Amino acid sequence: MPARTDSVVVPPPVPPRPPVVVPDPEPVADGAPRRTRRRVPAFRLGPYALLVPAAVVVLLGLGYPLVRQFVLSFQEYGLAQQFGRPAEWVGLDNYVTLLSDPYVWGVIARSVAFCLVNAAVTMAVGVALAVLMTKVSRGPRITLQVGLLLAWGTPVLATMTVWQWLFDSQYGVVNWLLAEPLGFSGMSQHSWLIEPLSFYFVATVIVVWMSVPFVVFSVYAGLLQVPAECVEAAQLDGATGWQRFRFLAVPLIKPVLFVVGLLQVIWDLRVFTQIYVLQRAGAPTRETHLLGTYIYSLSKEFSMAGAMATIMLLITLVLTGSYIRRTLREEEL
Fold first, then answer.
1. Domains plus CATH for the chain?
2. Ranges of Pro residues compositional bias (predicted)?
3. Are 179 and 187 in contact (CB under 8 A)?
């Protein structure tokens, strides 16, 4: 018990702490730097083993066809080789033949222009509809979402059948609207697929209509992640709706915009079904070829088709290279 002295409680004495024994440092030579031991992280095989099944599927499903295509592009491989004749190695002859043809350069130019225009229009319309979905009430928003899902989920061939009837020269609703209510009488029997310019206009309408839902849902999901506190603070500071979108929402959803834009460029460059079906509906084939349909037209000459597909792959890498470099720089920051 502690002793009392004039009604003051005196605590018991605290025993002294044992001295801390510090090990002597290893003796080092004069002027030599001290070496510190770094702990090397243990290598774990488990995460890499889990990636093996997916890697095998990717290599078999994508790697083998890509390598086979690349090898065929350096050979002479046609119908005769399909029946057993050995393929002859021709080196770069297929590439020289294609790249020395002015028509091939015209197809490449049309494909790149069609890709960039469609990707830009799709992104503009998709972002606008995504912003609209954040502004409207629940009823109109659900109606718009259902309509976009139906447009996105409809099979491509069924969609193409509907659009062909809409732009039909005799019974199409588009010609009737232009001729009767709007007064353009010369459009009553207009054929949209005969001229290349109007052909690409119809193709652009169809491709954009089928691609917009993906952009809308992706960007809308990104806009929902913008903090409401930041939006309210910007609104209290007097920022307009455009300023809030331009300087607040866009920087926050920039990764989403980059990914969606990249996918649109890739998809619009290799578009095939829409162009092929419209060509079969009566359009001039040679004047309306894009890369996808032109490669298909070379299907009897597998080596030429492989070389053209390799060129298409290189063009895709060039168009998407700036995005990849920009993404890598942002990740380093």
1. 75-332 (1.10.3720.10)
2. 10-26
3. yes
Q: Which one, of 325, 191, 304, lies nearest residue 258 by Cα?
A: 325
Whether residue 308 has pLDDT greater than 50: yes
- Which is nearest to 279 in space by CA: 164, 193, 158? 193
Of the chain, the percentage scoring pLDDT greater than 90 comes to 24
Query: Which two tokens mark 310?
Result: 């390799």
Task: Read off the tokens for 195.
Answer: 């001229």
SS (H, E, C) the chain: CCCEECCEECCCCCCCCCCCCCCCCCCCCCCCCCCCCCCCCCCCCHHHHHHHHHHHHHHHHHHHHHHHHHHHCCEECCHHHHCCCCCEECCCHHHHHHHCCHHHHHHHHHHHHHHHHHHHHHHHHHHHHHHHHHHCCHHHHHHHHHHHHHHHHCCHHHHHHHHHHHCCCCCCHHHHHHHCCCCCHHHCCCCCCCCHHHHHHHHHHHHHHHHHHHHHHHHHHHHCCCCHHHHHHHHHCCCCHHHHHHHHHHHHCHHHHHHHHHHHHHHHHCCCHHHHHHHHCCCCCHHHCCHHHHHHHCCCCHHHHHHHHHHHHHHHHHHHHHHHHHHHHHHHC
Q: Please indicate whether residue 145 or residue 185 has the higher confidence score (pLDDT).
A: 145
Each residue's pLDDT tens digit, 292-306:
999 998 878 888 888
